[in-house]
Structure formats: C-alpha cells, structure tokens
Amino acid sequence: ENSINCYTAENAVEFFRQLSDFKGGRIVVTVGLPHKCPMIPLEITFAMHDFIQDRGLRDKTEFYYTYPIGRVHSLENVAKWAAPEFDRMGIQYETLFNMKEVDGKNAQVLSEEGGAVKYDLLVAVPPHKGQEVIEQNGLGQNGWIPTNRTSLHMEGEYGKNVIVLGDTTNLPISKAGSTTHFEAEVAAENVAAVIKIGRSVRSYDGKVFCFIEAGKDRATYAMFDYQHPPQPKAPTGAVHAFKMAYNQLYWASARGLL
Predict the structure, then answer these.
(1) Strand spans (E) along 34-145
(2) Which domain of life is it from (predicted)?
(3) 124 and 21 in one domain?
C-alpha cells in the first residue's frame, strides 16, 4: 500500500498517475528476487528518469535504485553495462539491499542489512512466486517444479512424460517470455521426435533473449544461454524501433496474419 508497481493493468495506471502528479523529491526503487522479466528494474528506472526529465523536474528529483546482490543486476555483464548508464544519468544506487519492510509512517524502506532509505515515491519490483497448488500437491518447493535443465522433463520418477516450461520450472534462469518461447521450440520438436522415432533429438541450452529499454527512445538487448553470458551493446534508436515493431508483429503472427 506504500509503493507502486507496473505488474497489472490497474497498477500500471496508478503508477502513471502518481508519476504524473509527482512534483519532486526522492524516487526509490526496490527489487525482490526472483522477479518477472529480468530487465524490468532497469527499464522502469530509465523510463522514469526520462519521463521526469521531460516534465522539467529532473533538477528537483533524486533517483535511488537498490538491488539485493552485490551489483545492480543479477547478470554480471548487464550490471557492468547498466552501472555506467546510471552514473551518466545521475542515478544513485545501493547494492546488497534486501528490503525487510516499509515504514510508511516515516516514509522509509528498511533493509535486512540494517539500512534505511527515505523516499517520497516508492517503486517496488515484487518478488515472483510459484503456484500454491504445486507446493500443496508436493510437486515442488515454493511452488516451482524441479526440472531437468536440458531435457525440460520434471525431475523424479513421474517426470518421464511431463515437460515443464516457463515460470513453472525451478531453473535459475530468467523468468521471461522468451525463455518459454525457446523452451517450447525444444519441447515441440522432442514430442514430435518421440512419436516418430521413439527418442528426443534436442536439448534446451538455456537460451534467453531480452530487449532492454534504456529510456524513452533508446534500447539494447541481451541474448544469452548456459554457456554464453549476455554482451549488451550501446543503446540505439534502431533497436528501440525494432522492439516497437516486434510488439505489433508478434500479435499479428499469433493471429495467423504473418
């Protein structure tokens, strides 16, 4: 109740309303792990920066970004790219900050490490959770199903004919739409192969692709797998334009128009 986020349509509308009404002060970003979409903490911070700047309030606004581990992002190379971007924009950041509670009365965030950060507007990236039905039925701890990282079969004696995809897995990889997309390609090909020749023919290599919006009109991307870390490039308007076009093309293909 003391923070805003953009993870539902209603919350996104409220996020926009409060940011539009903001007159200046400190905007604090807190991040829970794991979270949906690996790049969202960075993207909302960059987007807020440019929005506030366009409103002419940048000199009246302090941005303070916190992250639970010892760098500004869980992926090391993404963190190495993002930290200089923060520095260039004048965005302060504190790492090893795990939110413990929000003291709404005094408008401050308290961390497990004993720190306290004052805020005027608090933006929270909530931790992603597994499904209760999974844990209630003994299928996996904390609502995630134990999954083989390459075959994508559920671990255990009943997993031979069960394929697990997307956010349902307990794999320590990004909870992103592209993750499910690439997993589904492997799963579909293997199901067809088992029917035809009696065995699987592909392994999932951990492939993930994520655009990273670096403000209102610039973007870069991260593509990585189990063996190859991401290598984000300098953001460009061209990548941003491609991302915007992709948003339209995806739904056109889903409707069979492409």
Answers:
(1) 61-66, 92-94, 99-103, 108-111, 116-118, 121-125
(2) Bacteria
(3) yes
